[in-house]
Amino acid sequence: MENRIQRIKEALQEAQYKLTPQREVTVKVLLENERDHLSAEDVFLKVKDKYPEIGLATVYRTLELLSELKILDKINFGDGVSRYDLRKEGAKHFHHHLVCMECGAVEEIEEDLLEDVEKIVEKEYNFKVMDHRLTFHGICGNCQSKKD
Amino acid sequence: MENRIQRIKEALQEAQYKLTPQREVTVKVLLENERDHLSAEDVFLKVKDKYPEIGLATVYRTLELLSELKILDKINFGDGVSRYDLRKEGAKHFHHHLVCMECGAVEEIEEDLLEDVEKIVEKEYNFKVMDHRLTFHGICGNCQSKKD
DNA sequence: AGTTATAATGTTTGTGATTATCAAACAAAG
DNA sequence: CTTTGTTTGATAATCACAAACATTATAACT
Question: In this entry, which stretches build a coiled coil (chains A, B) (predicted)?
């Protein structure tokens, strides 16, 4: 964990930004909740526990900054809130999501799965793919068994 | 075009809704701008040209209704606005998009391309896929050639 | 046609997430 | 220490969208 903070610090500095205490706390919260897709509000509340003086705007600014630096991915599952997801270290691509239409649970898929599709897109549509977002909507295993 | 309006009318009636003049104008605007990923505001302005008395809320309601009936797909490219996209007739799935990071152009892909991926997801993750959203971010052909 | 029930509309007001503003705190450099 | 630029926190503003509600249209009866 310390390593990852260190790495993020370096990324910030490379882009002429500092890892201020506020930013560090925010990053820590993101690391500690890596699998939850937190909204800005969620992050704000969790950060506030550790650093009560922080302002909402600072959290928004930090999330925006980390997104620009591709440390975070800003996602939108269609419920009027942006959610933030740490990009895996070294991951070229955004990972995929399975959103359950019943219970709202969000599962992540680390596998790429899209290599072939991207090749087709590059060739047939002459489009240079830099990143992708793939979300499946459906019914998760849990909710499927409940229905029986 | 008249056919498609007729088909949409039937879909509405099947769900106990009427094709009111306001709804018809809204549908026409959507058909006339089928390739354009309009926001609710965009639709409202275009509808207003043809039917100045219409209220914003009616347009929102109509877009919502058509989305529920799967005539429209509501999409989100990450700029804080929802955009609306007519579903091709008979299409089970949402079509994909190529968003150019340079010029912002949005191209559509009709091909499914995800059949294999969905099979993997259903098997390995025990997730029943109902729909999907896939967007590629990258550089379109136009912008690629400009760079040379 | 007249009456009533229901659906749909338009105006206006609310709401909730995000952004902008701006003065104050802080940090770095001379 | 002084100056300059960065970052912060409080607050107000914005913006997309939803809710409320009175009004109007439509359909189904009589």
Answer: none
| Residues annotated in a binding site of A | 100, 103, 115, 132, 140, 143
**Strand D closer than 7 A to residue A141 Cβ:** no
Q: Which nucleotide is nearest to B40 (CA to C1')?
A: D16
Give the nearest chain B residue to A107 (CA atoms). B125
Residue that finishes a domain, picked among B91, B113, B140 = B91
Give the pLDDT confidence of B20-35 residue by residue, as tens digits.
999 999 999 999 999 8
The Å distance, CA of A54 to C1' of D1, is 30
Question: CB within 8 A of B147, min separation 6: which ones?
Answer: B139
Query: Helices B21-32 and B56-68 meet at what angle, rounded to 10?
Result: 70
Nearest to B62 by CA among B51, B139, A52, A148: B51
Same domain assignment for residues A46 and A70: yes
In tens, the pLDDT along A8-45 reads 999 999 999 999 999 999 999 999 999 899 999 999 99
